[in-house]
């Protein structure tokens, strides 16, 4: 550190001085080349191994004020890691310079996706609630922020950990065509989650769409959506509800050929021994006629609606299969 301090003390050296070569002291105001396949290391035992501050241009100036500008031709501009479980990178936005709308960490990638790794990959703290802890942008077809964790600890380790102590948003994702957020759980543990959202008094998951689908749930062989209310309401439908396991069947009786039943083939689901078929007449043109039974045929995957008597006209019957 003494050598570095001496080098820093030489800040009065003219910017026109020759660039420092490998083994030379660090010279401010000029380019310092460590040489091919060589690293320049700085070791410190205090709170900061290296501290940089940039007063920057006045507020509103078109030029950015950056403390450190790191560029790499082939790999990451900055690589951070932690050996003791602490956050690899901590970023704070202050309010003295107009914290609103400012960003603690901003990453832009025009090629392959990158990941900031650590016990917590990026710990971004924003003082002003209108700012952003971490902002990641990708101008190509890659990822704005790509984070993974291999830890088996499900409680304390997260690829991305975001909190907001105010009334703002913990994580905000925006996309112009792709997926805003893709969450994948590759484990075989039935207790694992692709997305785990919790709320103490608000809404854990909120989906909103102008013309599309607010929330889409899909499964191949499991349960697409589970709604459980311990003491409250499991499902509150405010608006129309549509089921593809429902429909209308017509018993087409005539004077020449009276009919009392109709067979309905099920295509949207598979009937089981637990399936319930509900049916009710939708027309009022056959007084005294009612649905006597709706009998499922599990093997054939159909059910038969039986009226209490044959009709000589068309009678519509609405049906609904549950379970």
According to DSSP, the number of beta strands is 10
Mean pLDDT: 76
DSSP strand content? 15-25%
Strand order of the largest sheet: 5-10-7
Briefly, what is this?
By secondary structure, the protein is an all-beta fold.
Would you give an account of this structure?
The chain has 323 residues and is mainly beta. Among the domains are: 1-51, no CATH class; 246-322, no CATH class. The protein has 1 helix and 10 strands; from the N terminus they run αββββββββββ. The chain has one helix at residues 2-9, and strands at 90-93, 103-109, 123-126, 132-138, 246-252, 259-265, 276-281, 291-297, 302-311, 314-322. Strand 8 (291-297) and strand 9 (302-311) form a beta hairpin.
Distinctive features:
323 residues, mainly beta, 3-stranded antiparallel β-sheet, 10 strands
Topology, pairings included?
Elements: H1 2-9, E1 90-93, E2 103-109, E3 123-126, E4 132-138, E5 246-252, E6 259-265, E7 276-281, E8 291-297, E9 302-311, E10 314-322
């Amino acid at each position: 550190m003494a050598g570095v301090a001496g080098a820093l003390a030489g800040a009065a050296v003219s910017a026109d001085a020759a660039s420092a070569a490998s083994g030379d002291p660090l010279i401010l105001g000029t380019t310092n080349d460590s040489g091919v396949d060589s690293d320049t290391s700085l070791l410190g035992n205090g709170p900061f191994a290296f501290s940089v501050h940039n007063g920057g241009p006045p507020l509103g100036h078109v030029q950015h004020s950056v403390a450190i500008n790191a560029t790499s031709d082939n790999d990451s501009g900055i690589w951070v890691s932690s050996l003791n479980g602490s956050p690899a990178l901590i970023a704070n936005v202050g309010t003295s310079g107009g914290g609103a709308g400012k960003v603690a960490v901003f990453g832009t990638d025009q090629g392959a996706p990158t990941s900031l790794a650590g016990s917590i990959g990026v710990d971004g703290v924003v003082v002003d609630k209108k700012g952003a802890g971490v902002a990641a942008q990708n101008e190509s077809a890659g990822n704005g922020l790509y984070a993974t964790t291999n830890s088996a600890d499900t409680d304390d380790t997260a690829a991305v950990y975001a909190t907001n102590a105010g009334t703002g948003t913990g994580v905000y994702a925006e996309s112009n065509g792709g997926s805003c957020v893709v969450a994948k759980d590759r484990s075989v543990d039935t207790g694992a989650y692709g997305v785990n959202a919790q709320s103490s008094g608000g809404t854990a998951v909120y989906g909103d769409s102008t013309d599309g689908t607010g929330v889409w749930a899909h499964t191949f062989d499991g349960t697409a959506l589970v709604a459980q209310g311990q003491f409250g309401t499991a499902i509150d439908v405010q608006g129309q509800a549509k089921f593809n396991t429902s429909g209308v069947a017509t018993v087409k009786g005539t004077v020449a050929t009276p009919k009392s039943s109709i067979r309905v083939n099920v295509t949207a689901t598979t009937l089981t021994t637990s399936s319930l078929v509900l049916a009710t007449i939708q027309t009022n043109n056959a007084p005294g006629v009612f649905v006597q039974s709706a009998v499922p045929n599990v093997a054939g995957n159909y059910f038969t609606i039986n009226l209490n008597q044959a009709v000589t006209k068309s009678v519509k019957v609405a049906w609904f299969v549950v379970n």
